[in-house]
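Quick one, tokens below:
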């Protein structure tokens, strides 16, 4: 970890204590503050319920918990599914799936920056949930800085995550709420 990484982490921790209701993370060399919304919270809860219903132990799925990527900014996915036995500090090597719920209409963070980073580090599955458009994009088969497979699901469909460890999570989207 570099001095800059330490500085960003400490700054984020101080900001989090002051700005309640915001998700605060490092994106490249910037600190990004995104207001949390009720729609995002409800969506995350439904995803967590689906993961639990699939039989995955609760200590394998996390929400807004730091995942380390060596040489790059750590991430705090809205939802992360980890390998069995993953230990703190959590590493990208144990990350089976990352789920992000888009916070703004023009979200380059979730659709570009995180796509490149997750793919580059071989995260097997990345699900982007977009309440503005009522769609989910399931990215898989990482290669270089991109995913070679992208499946689009409209709200109402069930998204199936086939995890690298053989687990399967079915996420019904029929009750996901949309931004008007």
């Amino acid at each position: 970890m570099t001095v800059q990484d330490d500085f960003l982490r400490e700054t984020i921790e101080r900001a989090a204590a002051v700005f309640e209701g915001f998700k605060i993370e490092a994106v490249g060399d910037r600190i990004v503050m995104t207001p949390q919304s009720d729609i995002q919270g409800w969506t995350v809860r439904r995803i967590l319920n689906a993961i639990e219903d699939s039989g995955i132990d609760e200590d394998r799925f996390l929400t807004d918990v730091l995942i380390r990527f060596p040489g790059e900014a750590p991430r705090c996915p809205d939802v992360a599914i980890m390998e069995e036995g993953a230990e703190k500090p959590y590493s990208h090597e144990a990350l089976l799936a990352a789920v992000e719920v888009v916070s703004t209409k023009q979200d380059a963070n979730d659709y570009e920056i995180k796509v490149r980073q997750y793919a580059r580090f071989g995260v097997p599955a990345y699900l982007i949930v977009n309440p503005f458009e009522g769609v989910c994009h399931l990215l898989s088969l990482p290669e270089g800085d991109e995913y070679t497979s992208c499946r689009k699901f409209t709200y109402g469909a069930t998204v199936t995550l086939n995890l690298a460890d053989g687990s399967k999570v079915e996420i019904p989207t029929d009750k996901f709420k949309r931004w008007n």
